[in-house]
Amino acid sequence: MLSIYETSAKYVAYMATQYDDFAHSTDGAIMEALGDEILENMYDDELLSLWFEFRSDRYNEEYYELSNDELNECLAGNEPDEIVRMTLFGNFNYNDDYFTIDDLENLESFQEWKLVEEARKDNEFKQWLTDEKSDWDMDWLEETRKQYSAYLKEGF
């Protein structure tokens, strides 16, 4: 569980003012700001672990660290010509950090920094983090709402 108590309600309320528009309700703006704050302050290894969990839960994708052991385990039982096909028709680079087997049974590999960048930009992932993985409660939300309204009255 991601603790939101490391982030002050006052700070999240201030950040939420940037989302004050017709597309966001008060709670929507607050949750958007909370998601941004979580993503900005999370270490890459923790972010990737949650990103992989999200992708597995939502899209049934499995990511593996690119190592000989992982490759051998994932490709065990495949004939050599099948492995060549998986590599040839996939987007695989042995120097990358992670890999997956896509829907067409091809090998796809990724550099860590690209996955981190993609995770930080994914709004669906951000919403999943705030809804499923953070520990906000109604007391925190009410405090943040009050501060958010105060900021809006001050013209932020």
Radius of gyration, Cα only, in angstroms? 20 Å
Q: Tell me the overall shape.
A: elongated
Biggest sheet details:
3 strands, antiparallel
* Strand percentage: 5-15%
What is the average of the pLDDT values? 88
Number of helical regions: 8
Label this structure with key terms:
3-stranded antiparallel β-sheet, mainly alpha, 3 strands, elongated, 156 residues
Q: Would you write up a description of this structure?
A:
Strand 2 and strand 3 form a beta hairpin. The protein has a three-stranded antiparallel beta sheet. It has helices at 9-16, 26-41, 44-59, 68-75, 80-88, 112-121, 123-133, 138-154; strands at residues 64-65, 98-101, 107-110. The mean pLDDT is 88. The protein has eight helices and three strands. The protein is mostly helical and 156 residues long. The longest helix is centred in the last third of the chain and has 17 residues, at 138-154.
Per-chain topology:
Layout: H1 9-16, H2 26-41, H3 44-59, E1 64-65, H4 68-75, H5 80-88, E2 98-101, E3 107-110, H6 112-121, H7 123-133, H8 138-154
Antiparallel strand pairs: 1-2, 2-3
Helix pairs in contact: 1-2, 1-8, 2-7, 3-6
Short characterization:
By secondary structure, the chain is mainly α.
